[in-house]
Each structure stands twice: as C-alpha cells, then as structure tokens.
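Dear colleague,

Thank you for sharing your sequence with our group. We've completed the structure prediction you requested, and as agreed, I am returning the results in plain text so they can be pasted directly into your records. Please verify that the sequence below matches your submission; if there's any discrepancy, let me know and we will rerun it promptly.
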Amino acid sequence: MAAQVLAPMPGTVIEILVNVGDPVTKDDELLILEAMKMENPIYAPEDGTVKEIMVKEKDSVESDQVLMVLE
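Please find the predicted structure tokens below.
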C-alpha cells in the first residue's frame, strides 16, 4: 500500500536526501524543508521504497502538499 509524505507547513524544499527506488525505514530523513528560516527534516512515516518524488529542490510547497510517495 502506498503512503504519501505530506508537507507539514508551507516552505521551500532545500535538499532531497533520497532517490526513486531507495528503500527507507520509518523515521529516515527524506528531505529538508525550510520554513520560517528554520530547516525542518521530513521523515518517512513508515518503511517502504521511494516510488515517486513530486517536488524538486527550490520548489515552494503548501501545507499538506504531497512531497513523495512510498510503497
């Protein structure tokens, strides 16, 4: 079953730490989101494999926007 990784707040993607096809475990850092001048790591909600990355570095994102999909 696929799990969506959502942005918890509006911000800018400053670094993507994984690639499509990478295996991840729960709480692995997936990307860094800059919001309110702070770097906020975004973690994997569960074990899986990165199926799709929906954003690029320097993209602006909104709250609850899908950042990537794990399966």
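Summary note from our side: The beta strands are 3-6, 11-16, 23-24, 29-35, 38-43, 48-53, 60-61, 66-70.

Kind regards,
the structure core
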